[in-house]
Amino acid sequence: MTLFVVLALISALVTFGLSMLVYRLAHRYKLYPKIRARDVHTRPTPRLGGIAMFLGIVAAFGVAWLISAQFPPLKIIFDDPAQILAILGGALLIVLIGVADDIWDLDWMTKLAGQFLAAGLIAWKGVQVYALPLGGVTAIGSSWISLIITVFAIVLVMNAINFIDGLDGLVAGVALIANGVFFLYTYLLVQQTSPSNYFNLASLIAALLVGACVGFLPLNWHPARLFMGDAGALLIGLLMATSAIAVTTQVSPASPSLVSAELMPAFIPIILPFAVLLVPLLDFSLAVFRRLRAGKSPFSADRKHLHHRLLDMGHSHLHAVLIFYGWTAVASIGCALFFILPAYFGLPAWWAAVFLVLGLIACTAVTLAPLSKRKALEAASQAAAPDSPDAAATAPFDPLDEASEAFDDLDAVPSMANTAENQTHKDQS
């Protein structure tokens, strides 16, 4: 565990230092695009933070390789250097595609082709879904099916992560939480299934991603000074998918630790990767459905993502980001507890179910809170006398009033007291 933490720290420090360098160079040479109609920020901001994240991860991989001779358990990860080189090669390709898109705005077909090439390179060199630990049943028997599933899974996760990259600190924070939980889970899982081989590729990738997100987040926190851009979002998606796939190659589907009387723990290796990606996959699915129904390309841009809808509901920028963090934490931690509580604390799995249910209820309540406030304002507006100050103050929230389109932000609405005072001054004049 200590060695993973040290490598994550190296990834964080290198990422932070290079992020500062990229930020200064981008402003010196004006390497930032114009603000688009769907953007939430209001000032030009560099989008090249993904370069710093990539180099931070590469640096940590390099240190891990250099010290692997002194740490035999770590050397196991580098027994097949072609696999590591394929992962880094695919990551480099996707970063180049992302940087080109951030600067020149590539068409969606070019970006998708690059994503398939990067995913294909990783799958070709052996990081594939060879077996699914579905309660002790191996579900994949064909190498071609394995390769196809792997490629499409990586491309799906890359786009899911990229789709939610719309608010300051959103992707970096969500990835930090998701990979933190996934690292802990893979580390403990491999200890259960292979006690003598607890260093594994999945845990290493997750740890380095956590480090990169920690190093990048200070410059990406609201108000952001640097964006990760498509390069960073696609890189995170590619490595998260690769980490999840790598765990299937190191956990035997027939392991006694997974095949137990409890059904849920046996399915956690499949459920948890989806749980940590709950928010991105949900947003991706809704966006694709919405665009196809409108007769548009599923990769066309719009301003109807989940984070946009949270802002439109009345949440502030920070509140919207924290809500995403909350949903990600509850889903990922809740699913991981189905494995951790019975295996390490001897507690029944239903405690994890209780945590998951209560957490989802709390997240739902916080997410929908502005709607209750808006409904109360609508009711007050419709109940107020037509010529009263209260009617003027709440008119923007009456859906039957044309003035309802005047305000999108709850904080922008003048208070009833201020409206009444202004009306008194007008009457006196």
From TrEMBL:
One of its GO terms (cellular component) is plasma membrane. It holds the Pfam family Glycos_transf_4. It is found in: Cell membrane. Coiled coil: none annotated. Its cofactor is Mg(2+). GO terms for biological process: cell wall macromolecule biosynthetic process; cell wall organization; lipopolysaccharide biosynthetic process. The chain crosses the membrane at residues 6-26, 47-67, 82-100, 112-131, 137-158, 170-189, 201-219, 226-247, 267-289, 318-344, 350-371. InterPro entries: Glycosyl_transferase_4, PNAcMuramoyl-5peptid_Trfase_CS. Keywords: Cell membrane, Magnesium, Membrane, Metal-binding, Transferase, Transmembrane, Transmembrane helix. It is a multi-pass membrane protein. It comes from the Bacteria. Its main location: membrane. Mg(2+) binds at residues 162, 230. GO terms for molecular function: metal ion binding; phosphotransferase activity, for other substituted phosphate groups. This is UDP-GlcNAc:undecaprenyl-phosphate GlcNAc-1-phosphate transferase.
